[in-house]
């Protein structure tokens, strides 16, 4: 279980996270949503141990993150960051293999099988000898998903182990650049991992994907959690208006198991005052 309690974090004197409260448990796909700059990536990076200058408490399975050795953290959690810019000419197989670096020699007996399995699951095995920087954006993202999967798995079979209390997966906009098929694949994989006991937290911008796959949504605004709970409760027109400034309708359709969020106001976003401000340049 992950407990984020009263976490605040500033860059210089600019507060970015303000008394953040969040609890996430294995078995649920938790999704962070919110407008640009709301603090989603910063929260994820703080939980990942990247930012250490926070105030408050982050407990992972009862242990304060501050007190956990870095190598122990790396064996417990895998992170897919936003905008990974890897320019070195590593092959696809080498990038996926980076997921295994955190483990000790005795834990790396099945490295090859796990890496092959992860590449096949993300449908990038055929690209394994290609130079990573030459791949398309969506292909690179699938390779990164394969890397984090390789980091999490302890056997070359998604269904073989129970990871409850042992593993955490942090995904920052994991489906960026992926086509519709691979978006579904990546999020079904995240759901399956959560069923295997992995604590999964993902940042998503797409309401339809969040509605289809999230069990619990945290809606962030100005560095704190504005609303949280199941999809039906959180993705309401007033919440979305408050956090994104957009009027939406939430529709239900007999052929769709989740609510559909549709925007009403595309034409009215270009207000005359905004245009006047632009004209000033
Ligand atoms: N290293 C940093 N130094 C200074 N300011 C930062 C840093 N990282 C983030 N910020 C600021 O913190 C705020 C929150 O950024 P963050 O990346 O967490 O937002 P986000 O909700 O993930 O947004 P997006 O949807 O655009 O990815 C922004 O105003 C950003 O400019």
From TrEMBL:
Transmembrane segments: none annotated. It comes from the Bacteria. Gene3D superfamilies: P-loop containing nucleotide triphosphate hydrolases (3.40.50.300). Pfam families: ABC_tran. The keyword Membrane does not apply. Keywords: ATP-binding, Nucleotide-binding, Translocase, Transport. Part of the ABC transporter complex HmuTUV involved in hemin import. Responsible for energy coupling to the transport system. This is Iron complex transport system ATP-binding protein.
């Amino acid at each position: 279980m992950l407990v984020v309690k009263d976490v605040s974090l500033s860059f210089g004197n600019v507060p970015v996270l303000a008394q953040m409260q969040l609890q996430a448990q294995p078995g649920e796909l938790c999704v962070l949503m919110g407008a640009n700059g709301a603090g989603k990536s910063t929260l994820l990076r703080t939980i990942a141990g990247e930012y250490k200058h926070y105030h408050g408490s982050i407990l992972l399975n009862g242990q304060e993150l501050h007190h956990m050795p870095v190598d122990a953290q790396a064996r417990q959690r895998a992170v897919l960051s936003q905008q990974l810019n890897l320019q070195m000419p590593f092959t696809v197989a080498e990038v996926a293999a980076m997921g295994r670096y955190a483990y000790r020699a005795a834990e790396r007996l099945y490295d090859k099988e796990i890496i092959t399995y992860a590449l096949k699951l993300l449908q990038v095995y055929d690209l394994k000898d290609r130079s990573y920087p030459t791949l398309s954006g969506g292909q690179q993202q699938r390779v990164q998903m394969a890397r984090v999967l390789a980091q999490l798995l302890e056997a070359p079979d998604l269904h073989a182990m129970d990871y409850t209390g042992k593993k955490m997966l942090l995904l920052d906009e994991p489906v960026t650049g992926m086509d519709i098929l691979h978006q579904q694949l990546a999020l079904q994989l995240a759901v399956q991992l959560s069923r295997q006991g992995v604590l999964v937290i993902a940042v998503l911008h797409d309401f339809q994907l969040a509605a289809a796959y999230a069990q619990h949504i945290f809606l962030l605004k100005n560095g704190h959690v504005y609303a949280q709970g199941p999809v039906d409760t959180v993705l309401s027109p007033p919440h979305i208006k408050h956090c994104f400034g957009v009027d939406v309708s939430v529709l239900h359709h007999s052929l769709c198991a989740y609510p559909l969020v549709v925007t009403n106001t595309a034409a009215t976003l270009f207000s005359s005052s905004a245009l006047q401000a632009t004209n000033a340049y």
